[in-house]
Amino acid sequence: MIESEYDDRESRKVERLITTAKFRYRAFIEEITASSSRNIDKNTIGRLSSCDFISQKQNILITGSTGVGKSFIATAIGYKACTMGYKVMYFSINKLFSRLKMAKADGSYLKEIDRIEKQDLIILDDFVLQSLDNLKRQDFMEIIEDRHGKRSTIIASQLPVSAWHEVIAEQTIADAILDRMVHNSLRIDLKAESMRRKKADQKIS
């Protein structure tokens, strides 16, 4: 009976962490397809599944063209982290910038930044395809600076890491952000055809 109550309490805790994370959809690491053609192997998936990168304060950078599974992998890692008791928050990067802009307007900006800083893992999805303006650049720098060496961040982007400097747009800040993000990070550069298109073709056939 005590064991059952403990399991129930742990289950509720995990569900609460998943709800708070605000993922766009459910995704599980066991569903990630490992293959050389996708440039992701079983060893890498095993490392992600352990979530050791969180205790080691590492970042994960996931890049690749549209539909290859970047968001799915990032979300699956986030789900796994929740099941292990870690606090996670998922953001579409443009929606995050909009949220921070509104927080500045209503006076809750510092509270919002503090909440983001305290998460064991944040996921920044759909990293921008256009140059950041000064306000977004400063917000992004503050988030990365606050978490550097203390917490883990996952960034998923269509752009290769080599193009991020240009998107951030201001050399000094770009250098500072990339130094903090890229150093000590696990990088996954996904290849192959769109997984969305592949699933659509399978349904048709």
Automatic annotation (TrEMBL):
Belongs to the IS21/IS1162 putative ATP-binding protein family. This is DNA replication protein DnaC. It comes from the Bacteria. SMART domains: AAA. PANTHER family: ATP-BINDING PROTEIN RV3427C IN INSERTION SEQUENCE-RELATED, CHROMOSOMAL REPLICATION INITIATOR PROTEIN DNAA. InterPro entries: AAA+_ATPase (IPR003593), IstB (IPR047661), IstB_ATP-bd (IPR002611), P-loop_NTPase (IPR027417). Residues 56-189 form the AAA+ ATPase domain. The lineage of its organism: Bacteria, Pseudomonadati, Bacteroidota, Flavobacteriia, Flavobacteriales. Pfam families: IstB_IS21.
